[in-house]
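User: My collaborator and I are trying to settle a disagreement about how two of our proteins should look. Neither of us wants to argue from intuition anymore, so we agreed to look at predicted structures for both before our next call. Could you fold the first one, then the second, and keep them clearly separated?

Assistant: That sounds like a sensible way to settle it. I'll keep them separate. The first protein:
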Amino acid sequence: MKLALVGDIGGTNARFALWRDNQLESVRVLATADFPGVEQAIVAYLDGLGLAPGAVHAVCLACAGPVSGDVFVFTNNHWRLSRSAFCRDLQVDELLLINDFSAMALGMTRLEEHERVQVCPGTAEADRPAVVVGPGTGLGVGTLIGSAAEGWQALPGEGGHVDLPIGSPREAQLWQELYRLNGHIRAEDVLSGGGLLLLYRALCALDGHQQTLQSPADITAAALAGDEVAGQVIDQFCSWLGRVAGNNVLSLGGRGGVYIVGGIVPRFTELFLRSGFARCFADKGPMSKYMVDVPVWLVTAEYPGLMGAGVALQQLLERQQ
């Protein structure tokens, strides 16, 4: 019996799973640096399960960046993929490539209640878009529309590359330091792993602190240990995340709720819940009333991108029946 396979491919890791009966099976995480291309990584994954190319008839891969044409170049690792060559070499009948945050958005449709933490209370409006925002290697933004009955649709976009919003005189001062260090400042330049370190450098330069921390992990660990400067960095990171998430709600009419995903924020959940996120999320001047009752959740699910790739593939296969 042929199987389906799904993948969620990031800059450092590629996550693969079999998709059967609307569920993930045999999830494995492989380092992208260990393989020259995605085909070789999939062959290694299948081999580990005792399967050969040809055992899988359909594949959905969630990839960072715009997806179109026969050749796809991964934006955050060294891999590239030709759809035609991929299907030929792996004996695959169907290959679906989707934007990684389209997959992440679709993954929100399969969340269990224990896989999310409420950040802002509210009631999601079923007929309105939901917004998915995720700081990680970069900053991903996705939009979810539709319903289980009519089918879910995720709108791809590059919302992580919008300009970083400024909401206070303090943020204006920090923005000037960020610009001095980095030039043009996108939201992703701050709301990402590397961005956390850039923000730390800017804050230290502005306030005259000695820079002793060398990595995002150092900053997170110091903040959790009670370091005042690192704590200010985390709080400002969360505050800017709130502004960006709120801007997306206004732009998209996203009263279906907001999901905060990605690998960074769950590492400091308690600090996030105490941070300025909720205040800055709702701080929209005359439009602040619009933000009342828009729920926000922090997603703690382990593989939402893989699950979303499975949802996308399932919907495609059902349409073809």
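The second protein, kept apart from the first:
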Amino acid sequence: MRYGISFLPDATEAVKPATTYYTDAVDLSVQADQGGLHFVKMTEHYLHAYGGYCPSPIAFLSAVASRTKDIRLMTGGILPVFHHPIQLASETSMLDAISGGRAEIGFARAYMPYEFDAFKVNLDGSRERFMETVGAVVRLWQETAVTMESQVFSFDNATTLPRCTQRPHPPVWIAAVQSRQSFAWIGQEGYKLLITPGITGYSEQQELISVYRESFAECHPSETPEIAISLPVFIGQSDKDAVRRGDLYLDRYLRVWADAAKHWNSASSRDYPRYTGLGRGLNADSPASMRERGAALIGSPQRIVDGIHWLQEKLKIDAILMQIDFGAMNGMDARCSLGLFIDKVKPYLASNIKRTQSTADDHEDKIVQRDVQH
């Protein structure tokens, strides 16, 4: 299991000025790097408190690259439907070079109607546009003199610069939420999978993850699929303290998200058949409900350990990416929460894994000794 931090800004200037947000986010990234975490992830959104502080994950992660040494830098994700593939291939390769080969490139389909309206991109047809653009980026990373033509872009004899530092290219992650078709396609292409908790629990997620694993195994039998989940995490010295403070931030996070998603209360699209009414569903959600169904982990270090074990057992995931500053969280609270994970949670998880492995090794040794004696 690997661990990281995930940023999805949900602040306005009135609640947390942009300069303060970026200072806190970079400081948290440095803290995560020094604490031995594996990833820092930033998403892309526009025009609303929901994600609007990060129109460019690449710019943010380039700043993080200059302050860190080992942590992997993940876009989570870039929105290809709003970009040209030559731009994306070039800028992501630049991040890979700046970071010395630490880039992990995640793509997401985008789903807020007001963003599509602003960029004059139709919701209908965006799935195909997304898949074509991702495929073009991967080709441009690996090949020279690339010629491609589609309904939304075309180019001849294109060789993007810089070339990728990692060969053949940085790891590719694709975010998926509730479309069986998306989970199957991600597996077919051999990409890594990014998921987030739904508003109805994990039973459907288990089924969709199985679709991904089966599709991946069928098309890439010699490779291993990887799954990472992003979700809000807040750690306090006690369960009572963590819930008292964490629920305030979680409620703010839900309200910002619901306000952004209210556009789905009157919108519809064949490419997003289950999104109509999303804003109403989020408005009906609550911090307590999120905690109860495991969509957020809030509590003491031991509660977080138990929650991580539960997620691992339920979903068989490979990485947990903690939304560490949700609700435009005060920088001190976010740093203390992350510090408790590094000092109290991570060592326990590591020692527990070692004990489990040691027990397995002892069991195997006894079998070997028994076989030798016989």
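Some points you might bring to the call about the second protein. The radius of gyration is 21 Å. Confidence is low (pLDDT under 50) at residues 354-374.
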